[in-house]
């Protein structure tokens, strides 16, 4: 749509450039210039009104578990969920400035050290990290738990952020491997969840 707007603006500019209105007087020439100016302003306004495409990215955390560990359901998070969590994390980050150690300890905003996995998901992977390209520590903030009955009080996913220019900015989304029960090797490891576009639903004929 944005490309079409650019083509339309270019076409109008070419049309206006070749527009000839008979003008034998100074007032006629002024009218000619006014018409050209109005057409150009209209084309610019059309381009400005062109809406941006929204990114319908989703992050899906697979379910897992079962005997002897409890069964956990999959969780799907939208772009809205992620943006809301980042916004809440920034609000909490400001609130904790000058807070006591007790308040910091109870806060849902935690330091994220991007430690090496104790038990990598892929066989043979050594010293793997949640976000390999992230340098230095960051912050983690929980995403909402959409299946509290099956998955417990805390959900499996977190947004990971780093501070830049006084603001926490998203670096990625991570989650626990829900196939690993409490106390299992690598139960506390965080693995990156890559966002993907949802598959279009087919309309029934």
Automatic annotation (TrEMBL):
Alphabetic keyword roster: Hydrolase, Nuclease, Signal
Molecular functions (GO terms): hydrolase activity; RNA binding; RNA nuclease activity
Top-level taxonomic group: Eukaryota
Signal peptide: 1-18
Entry keyword Hydrolase: yes
Residue ranges, annotated region (Disordered): 49-79, 112-156, 172-205
Basic residues composition-biased segments: 193-205
Keyword Signal: yes
InterPro entries: Ribonuclease/ribotoxin
Residue intervals passing through the bilayer: none
Protein's UniProt name: Uncharacterized protein
């Amino acid at each position: 749509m944005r490309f079409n707007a650019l083509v339309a603006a270019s076409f109008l500019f070419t049309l206006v450039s070749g527009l000839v209105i008979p003008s034998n007087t100074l007032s006629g020439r002024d009218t000619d210039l006014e018409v050209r100016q109005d057409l150009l302003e209209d084309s610019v306004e059309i381009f400005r009104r062109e809406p941006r495409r929204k990114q319908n990215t989703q992050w899906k955390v697979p379910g897992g578990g079962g005997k002897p560990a409890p069964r956990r359901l999959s969780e799907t998070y939208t772009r809205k969920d992620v943006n809301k969590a980042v916004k809440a994390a920034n609000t909490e980050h400001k609130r904790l400035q000058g807070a006591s150690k007790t308040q910091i300890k109870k806060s849902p905003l935690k330091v994220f050290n991007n430690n090496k996995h104790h038990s990598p998901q892929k066989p043979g992977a050594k010293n793997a990290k949640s976000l390999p390209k992230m340098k230095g520590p960051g912050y983690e903030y929980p995403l909402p738990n959409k299946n509290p009955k099956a998955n417990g009080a805390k959900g499996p996913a977190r947004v990971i952020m780093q501070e830049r220019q006084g603001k926490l900015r998203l670096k990625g989304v991570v989650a626990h491997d829900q196939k690993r029960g409490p106390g299992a090797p690598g139960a506390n490891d965080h693995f990156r969840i890559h966002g993907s576009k949802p598959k279009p639903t087919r309309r029934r004929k």
